[in-house]
Amino acid sequence: MRLLALAAGLAGAGAMAQFPEASQHYVQRLAGAVDELSVVVADFDRSAQSAGLTREEALAELSGSTFLAARNADMTRTITRYEALSSDLTLLRAAGPVERALLLPARLDTEIGRRALEDFRPALPLTASGAGFAGVGFVGGYGLLALFLSGLGRLMRRRPVAET
């Protein structure tokens, strides 16, 4: 039983140790998305400014035809996405490894996350945060399997039948 629990602990350590690097890949992808969206938004803002309009006024002028209404919706969606991703990037860059682990599920953009995981390759973490997550994973994996096997062992033991 101890050998199985040790194996579970090592598996948990290996899996959890990947989080700091995987989250770093995500933040790098997020930064790239923010950089690209900032080019589009800045270009739109420059066009609006050269026409003597604010962003909101320029968006309002995108109406009157099906194409212009669609373009308005596209730009509104792009600007909203840019602002949300920029905010997420600022928070995640400022966060430490544990705080990032807590923030990331609520801030995860699934498309960026999927792309980051496509390129991610597990590796041996040689950072303090990697070692910390490995330790948590080891304790978690070892502890959960040890508890499960202990409970299973108690259920399997024969209890003496009381004689009456």
Largest sheet: none
On the 0 to 100 scale, the average pLDDT is 88
What percent of the residues sit in helical stretches (DSSP H or I)? over 70%
Count of the separate structural domains = 2
Total DSSP helices: 7
Taken in chain order, the helices and strands follow as: HHHHHHH
Low-confidence stretches: none
> What structural category arises from helix and sheet content?
mainly alpha
Q: What's the count of strands?
A: 0
Beta-strand share of residues: under 5%
Gyration radius from CA atoms, angstroms: 26 Å
Overall 3D form? elongated
Calculate the terminal CA-CA distance, rounded to whole Å. Answer: 36 Å
Structure description:
It is a single chain. This protein is an all-alpha fold and 164 residues long. The protein folds into 2 domains: 1-18 and 126-164; 23-121, no CATH class. The protein has 7 helices and no strands. α2 crosses α6 (110-119) and α4 runs antiparallel to α5 (97-107). The radius of gyration is 26 Å and the shape is elongated.
